[in-house]
């Protein structure tokens, strides 16, 4: 018998998450049956989506949702040999017994000198989100100007780099001077700290006086309404996240963007990367190709210890991470 540590959501979040909303439990796992495998978590992802999705996809008492890179330690399934690694939606668990459904083997082309944790970041869900937002939703073209907020995060940092690969001007907004410096290292044309600029409107105008063709939206809230006013006519907006609203007990109201969208004839579309799941193998190969060529960089914010899952999760909601937040077991 193997003991598995699990983090349980014992109370739905009311406002910002608290330590008391979580409970660490230990459970005995049965030996894997025919067709089943026993997984041991190596890296776990903490992501902003967990905050709103916990309300709609979880009940109190459930194991927290999430994705991990895990090692196969026992196997009765020939598709997943012992010692191989997979990406799985196992939640906040140290060990899992499952039948292999929805497990994704780490691709054979994975470079030996690249950490498997990137399968949760630039070569995983965040990287795919960036790629599909740019290509499938925005249809970003060479020579266009792109604005991305939360630009130093797991998704935003990849968005900017892919846009540069495509020959675009990229402007990024982030929440600290260190994050702005990081964006400059990645090759962003312009970057600013939205917390210290006197005027969001003036900062956007200074960064791109002619306006913006495309806006990759990760934040929501009042600052996004300001950004919409700087869009060019027929501009496109890909709505990926709204992290500024996730912890609100009372929904934010206004300003409302409808008139701006009408006058500028803007197109806004929300999306999730699993819409293009059929493209995933090819897309992951493209991302890892850019990584090998040095065109795509990845920075990780690593927290060590399964016991620190809640702290790491709350940290990303405070904006403490630069790049992808990962918990290493």
UniProtKB/TrEMBL annotation:
* Presence of keyword Isomerase: no
Q: What is this protein called?
A: Prostaglandin reductase 1
Reading the lineage from the top rank, the first entry is: Eukaryota
* PANTHER family hit by this protein: PROSTAGLANDIN REDUCTASE, PROSTAGLANDIN REDUCTASE 1
What family does this belong to? Belongs to the NADP-dependent oxidoreductase L4BD family.
Record field: catalytic activity: dodecanal + NADP(+) = (2E)-dodecenal + NADPH + H(+); pentan-2-one + NADP(+) = (E)-pent-3-en-2-one + NADPH + H(+); nonan-2-one + NADP(+) = (3E)-nonen-2-one + NADPH + H(+); 13,14-dihydro-15-oxo-prostaglandin E1 + NADP(+) = 15-oxoprostaglandin E1 + NADPH + H(+)
State the Pfam families in the record: ADH_N_2, ADH_zinc_N
InterPro entries assigned to the protein according to its UniProt record, in alphabetical order? ADH-like_C, ADH_N_2, ER, GroES-like_sf, MDR_fam, NAD(P)-bd_dom_sf, PTGR1
EC number(s) per entry: 1.3.1.48, 1.3.1.74
């Amino acid at each position: 018998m193997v003991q598995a540590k699990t983090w349980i959501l014992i109370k739905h979040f009311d406002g910002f998450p608290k330590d008391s909303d979580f409970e660490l439990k230990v459970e005995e796992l049965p030996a894997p049956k025919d067709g089943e495998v026993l997984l041991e978590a190596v890296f776990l992802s903490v992501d902003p989506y967990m905050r709103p999705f916990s309300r709609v996809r979880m009940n109190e008492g459930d194991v927290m949702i999430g994705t991990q890179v895990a090692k196969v330690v026992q196997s009765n399934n020939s598709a997943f040999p012992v010692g191989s690694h997979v990406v799985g939606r196992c939640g906040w668990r140290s060990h899992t017994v499952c039948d292999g459904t929805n497990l994704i083997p780490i691709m054979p082309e994975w470079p030996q000198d690249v950490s498997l944790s990137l399968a949760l970041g630039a070569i995983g869900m965040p990287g795919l989100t960036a790629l599909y937002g740019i290509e499938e939703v925005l249809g970003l073209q060479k020579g266009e100007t792109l604005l991305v907020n939360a630009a130093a995060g797991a998704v935003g940092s990849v968005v900017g780099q892919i846009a540069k690969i495509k020959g675009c001007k990229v402007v990024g907004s982030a929440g600290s001077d260190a994050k702005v410096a990081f964006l400059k290292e990645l090759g962003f044309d312009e970057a600013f700290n939205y917390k210290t600029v006197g005027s969001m409107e003036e900062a956007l105008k200074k960064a791109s006086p002619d306006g913006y063709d495309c806006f990759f939206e990760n934040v929501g809230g009042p600052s996004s309404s300001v950004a919409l006013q700087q869009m060019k006519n027929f501009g496109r907006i890909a709505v990926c996240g709204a992290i500024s609203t996730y912890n609100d007990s009372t929904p934010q109201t206004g300003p409302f963007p409808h008139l701006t969208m009408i006058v500028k004839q803007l197109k806004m579309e929300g999306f999730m990367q699993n819409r293009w799941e059929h493209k995933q193998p090819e897309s992951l190969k493209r991302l890892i190709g850019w990584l090998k060529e040095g065109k795509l960089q990845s920075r990780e914010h690593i927290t060590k210890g399964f016991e620190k899952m809640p702290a790491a999760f709350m940290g990303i909601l405070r904006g403490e991470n630069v790049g992808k937040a990962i918990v290493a077991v």
